Amino acid sequence: MKLIAKIIPIKSVRPLAIMNQSDAEELGVFEGDRVRLVAGRKYLTATVQIALGFIEKGYIGICLKSAEDLGVEDGSEVDVIPIPKPASFEYIRKKLDGHKLTREEIYEIVRDIVNDALTEVELTAFVLSSYVHGMDLDEVEWMTRAMIETGETIDFEEGIVVDKHSIGGVPGNKISLIIVPTVASAGLLIPKTASRAITSASGTADTMEVLANVNLSIEEIKEITLRVGGVIAWGGATNIAPADDKIIRVEYPLAIDPRSQLLASVMAKKGAIGAEHVVIDVPVGEGSKVPDVEEGKKLANDFVELGRRLGLNVTCAITYGGQPVGRAVGPALEAWEALKAMEERKGAKSLMEKALGIAGIIFEMVGKTTNGYEYAKEIFESGKTLEKFKQIVEAQGGDPNVRSDDIPIGDKTYDVISPIDGAVAKVYNSRIVKVARAAGAPKDKGAGVLLFKKGGFHVKKGDVLFRIYAEKEWKLDKAIEVALKEPPVVVSGMILERYPSYRWMR
Amino acid sequence: MKLIAKIIPIKSVRPLAIMNQSDAEELGVFEGDRVRLVAGRKYLTATVQIALGFIEKGYIGICLKSAEDLGVEDGSEVDVIPIPKPASFEYIRKKLDGHKLTREEIYEIVRDIVNDALTEVELTAFVLSSYVHGMDLDEVEWMTRAMIETGETIDFEEGIVVDKHSIGGVPGNKISLIIVPTVASAGLLIPKTASRAITSASGTADTMEVLANVNLSIEEIKEITLRVGGVIAWGGATNIAPADDKIIRVEYPLAIDPRSQLLASVMAKKGAIGAEHVVIDVPVGEGSKVPDVEEGKKLANDFVELGRRLGLNVTCAITYGGQPVGRAVGPALEAWEALKAMEERKGAKSLMEKALGIAGIIFEMVGKTTNGYEYAKEIFESGKTLEKFKQIVEAQGGDPNVRSDDIPIGDKTYDVISPIDGAVAKVYNSRIVKVARAAGAPKDKGAGVLLFKKGGFHVKKGDVLFRIYAEKEWKLDKAIEVALKEPPVVVSGMILERYPSYRWMR
């Protein structure tokens, strides 16, 4: 069917063919069907959308980018041909019906995800089907391999390549800023790609960006790693495992994170950058992604087995995720806390124990030592971690002479104090994040929360429990409102509860 | 956050807030999140879409209709406020995790579907969750009631109101054109709402539209039914069970039809028009929706029990759906076949047996007779069915004096003949539909297929198996191509297969 192009000044992820109801009926297509748009020798696949009144019969609305790709302008003729759904759609239907997919089927699905050949509804169906029915380790392995192979990869010809990854869920987890230089200063290669915050207050990429450029290409990641031993880059700037970003785009609005996708996503990123030894940090506990150690062990087991199948040596560190790591939450505050610890060669106990513990596991995995924690602690306390961190910052275009106290923190602050004498009964991860985000994190780098009292600490009436930082007055006000409505830090007297709570009637 | 409106010349189903990445980060929202757009005293809820390059920082793209609703124009200021997902989203997540929903939760979901408060991804998640996990009869009952209550309904103050519904899947099913007047001429009220074809060659509404207007309001349906006893209207022109159309829009691209939605959809429509006695036609067999009689019985059982809960007297007719009903497939051809049968007081055996059989069940249900089939046959053969049909056609604005041979049929035809002597071994429902649709049905009313030989018929070499009708030469050519590639009618010699197929090696 020949139609006249009408160019619509929007850009859509997938090409759209916006048609009049009557033309669509004539062509025998419905909303969501695929058509091929042909102009001369150029063509592309588009998804039919029925215009609600603004495209006349005989016309077809196409977006800016499609018009460019087809080389057509307003008034050009475009041939519109119905085409069937891609084969991968049948495989998604198969998974939806609870059947196991083959290697070839999974590869086809992942290729179509990367090429934007699936509509949003179809991709949603795939993610939901793997959420509801799960995938076995064969399927997860194929998924991981397909995700690696459909993106860019790094092959280090020399050196021992290690990596670490946290599955997330615990605020203030700035440990990579300490682990990467500690490990690199011992001669290992650690090309760490990190993510930005989606629902958290700061991703490692957001935190590192306070001090250096994290938008590195895959060539830059390799070059810097070979030169100084380590890097902390934003994975999203590369084309590593590109299917992952597209899947996450669908998971986010559904607030789901299928186990199979979590496994494949992490391992694909680690496999793609050529890591041989990997530590996976699995925070467990209330308010983190994994409720308890038992569940953490199951997940750890899958990571280790998946690593074995992919030729990666994997160890999982099941860590305490019931409250924030260290004291600072928010990009600049976290960068400040990590750098301060490196400068002073000491820091908050939870931060030091976790960062050096994981660095230590890496040292043991590669056979450097049988007491990794002590080995890492020695490096850290000798000042080598700081020295290496400065080299990394410089290699990533930052100022190597930056000092923690130079880091700009939001100058609008508010202290939340304890109303009573007692002890901190609870620190809520999700509430801390809510306050930090209301204050402006991660977009406003200087916004966040600094904890003065964590779980178990004794407090006196009037003690500062935490301080909110913001760059803008109105955001500080909003954050205070959130903090007062749902207190992130709860103090109780020593008697936490009275049971039964009623008093005996006399 | 205050942004400047930029009006985009598109109309979308749900209001969109097209934002610059930087503004979205500043506001802390992601694609798919909800925001409230406020202009003066007017406001609406919109879904965030991140502009790919064409909306500058400080601006917000909104569609024509939203701009009208807000009373803003290009350059007006709009306040953008993030708001949480609706409560129904939590219930969808609950169903996704396999839990049973409560009555209140289902009502909330249905209300939000009707009000377009759920995004396409969220609605997809709901439909998929009920496909994968199913719903029990409590949930289906609540779903049905909620669908009825969120739309228009008819209350007939007098008369016995009956109805019939086919769950579909078998081509050429023009029985309603005979059942409705037969039943109405016996003094019952039958306000039949029908659907248009989505993937078939003709829906009952498409077929009836050849002879009369089917776009009737709910008031017209009631008035005509009270006046002449029956009506055959397009349900889509009314606001009966509006949630159903929105759910179908998501089911179509996924090619799924969850059992629970099928039950709720059918029964909501019947309940809404005030039917007391309903026959459900469940075609079974290869190529129809239900594979065999056993499965048909299970579905029938659910229909009957659901009817009992809703106060509807339901009987299911499990019918043979392995090949088309009658000989004609396509709107005008089907109208022709039905009208011809009424004029001649006889017709194809499969058509007469099914139409009069179902009319007969209705007569038995209301206690008119204990031999419904004979009762219906008498009415039909007396000419009363034709007489009543003409009254209905006239009441719906058609020509009551129309004769079957006046009906315009496509004048481009092609006969497919048998290449051998033998018998018809198979008639493929799906292939017949494919050919009819390629020929232009249902959009071109005169397009379709007329069968001369059906399953079991003996044929001689050169006999016409079926004739393709089209209104346009190029569509006829396409239909011929489809028919030759995948033959809809297959003739075999009497030895259908040789087993083992290899010959003994000597």
From TrEMBL, chains A, B:
Domain of life, per lineage: Archaea
Binding site for AMP: G169, S195, R196, A197, I198, T199, S200, T204, S265, K289
Keywords: Glycosyltransferase, Transferase
EC nos: 2.4.2.57
Entry-linked SUPFAM superfamilies: ADC-like, Nucleoside phosphorylase/phosphoribosyltransferase catalytic domain, Nucleoside phosphorylase/phosphoribosyltransferase N-terminal domain, Pyrimidine nucleoside phosphorylase C-terminal domain
GO biological process, one term: pyrimidine deoxyribonucleoside metabolic process
InterPro entries listed in its UniProt record: AMP_phosphorylase (IPR017713), Asp_de-COase-like_dom_sf (IPR009010), Glycosyl_Trfase_fam3 (IPR000312), Glycosyl_Trfase_fam3_N_dom (IPR017459), Glycosyl_Trfase_fam3_N_dom_sf (IPR036320), Nuc_phospho_transferase (IPR035902), PYNP-like_C_sf (IPR036566), PYNP_C (IPR013102)
Active site positions, chain numbering: D257 (proton donor)
Gene Ontology MF, one: 1,4-alpha-oligoglucan phosphorylase activity
UniProt function note: Catalyzes the conversion of AMP and phosphate to adenine and ribose 1,5-bisphosphate (R15P). Exhibits phosphorylase activity toward CMP and UMP in addition to AMP. Functions in an archaeal AMP degradation pathway, together with R15P isomerase and RubisCO.
Similarity comment: Belongs to the thymidine/pyrimidine-nucleoside phosphorylase family. Type 2 subfamily.
Protein name according to UniProt: AMP phosphorylase
